[in-house]
Amino acid sequence: MSLKVNAKNDEKMDWRYRVFDSLSFPTLILKPNKVIISANRIFLETFHMCLENVVGKACHEIFFESKEPCPEDLCPLLKVLTNKSGQSVLRMRSVGDGEDIWEDRVFSPILGDDGEIIYIMESIRDVTRVKKLEKALLEAKEFLEKIIFSSPSAIMAADRKGNVLLMNKAAEELFGYTIEEIVKEKTVESIYPPGEAKKIMRALRDESYGGKGKLPVRKAKIINAKNEEVHVEMTAAIIYEGVREIATMGIYNDLTEKLEVERKLRETRAQLAQSEKMASLGQLAAGIAHEINNPLTGILFNASMAAETLEKDDANLEKMNFIIEDVNRCKEIVKNLLVYSRQVTSSKILVQIEDVVNNSLNLIHDQRLFGNIIIDKDLSKETILINVDKNQITQVLINLIMNACAAMDGEGVLTLRTYRDKAERKAYLEVEDNGCGIAEENLSKIFDPFFTTKEQGKGTGLGLSTSYGLIKENGGSIYVKKTDPAGTTFCVELPLFVPDESHLFEQGRDAEKNE
Asked: What CATH number was assigned to the domain covering residues 259-340?
């Protein structure tokens, strides 16, 4: 190949030199020993040089102002000479104002007729803008990853086959898998209940449901590593490349705590409504009891006097005794109404809750009530003191025990449990049975006066309502802790007696003075 070195002195310029000089990238022609024999116009303009100052110098003298050649591991010329094939290298070069310029240098061999390299063409392409874009893109990617991986919401992405591609820390905690475990063992479909993943995908592809490829916030269930169902709030989207679906992503928020708060709020509202209802009923019951009590006393007095005047064989004596018995029954109901409406005085003493349990069991004289029932006393080993009216609490416990025995129909396990929460200053007494449970529709009515599910004549419906009033009288609360077809647990919550430590300190100091 013939190449003109200095076109200015040659009137017959070779057309190949014209092509070389018109290249859009700065280009040099080098000998195999790295000496420059020519440079094109754009090179001279770009580097602000004239041809006479370039020709005859080695490339490292021009670019790095060094007499020493570049290290062989950094210079691709050796590979070009060895392999007789093109090579490229990416170099960063600093310019005068301190700015770094990135250059992509391509080395192409020019072969002679014998197939040996006679020249090497070095083209220089400024890729600074591309590198800056790459850097900006990388920084944006890293920033986006930081947002995703630091998000408190669980984020997961998967390909079209359901293979997980990305999962942040919150998702690992929610699902109970590491990204390595879920990639190896699971697909997205397996983290939902059966059929749920397909339902979500149908909704995502439905244009009428939030727009195609988008899923508005909705409640769902996921299956964690412990095979537990977890309620979540989620949104999802399809990731497109043009019009082609390439992946899906979902954002999840655990609703466990929120649902628990909502449940407790519903219970609190229900208890408040129950308290208001019971207060109103209590006032009504008190008024009725006082109005009925006086005529009942008169009836009982006159019936008793009349019975005393009758002979033992008088046919009317049995009828009179029936009247007296029914009046006494009515007076007992009135008494219970007064207890329920807190119209009776109480006498509080300091007592161990364990003694109340044992005393209540001893006072149930009809042992036939228990039948084949096993009594399990799960009593706390700690000393639990309560300041209550012992007789009233005993009455409540006896009533709960009798109801539990009736629910089990004479066969099952009756558990009496005590424990305390010292921090909250609460003492607890639970009565648990494995009977038939309480129907959901009856739960809101069990403490109402005269409400009973027993057969007519077998209950007045005042047992639980009276118990409610007695527990309130002693500063506590009573409620159904659990009920289902496997049994019911009633919980009595009472103030825990905690000795006044400052008072004990004063006593100790007085004792020291006396000494």
From this structure: 1.10.287.130
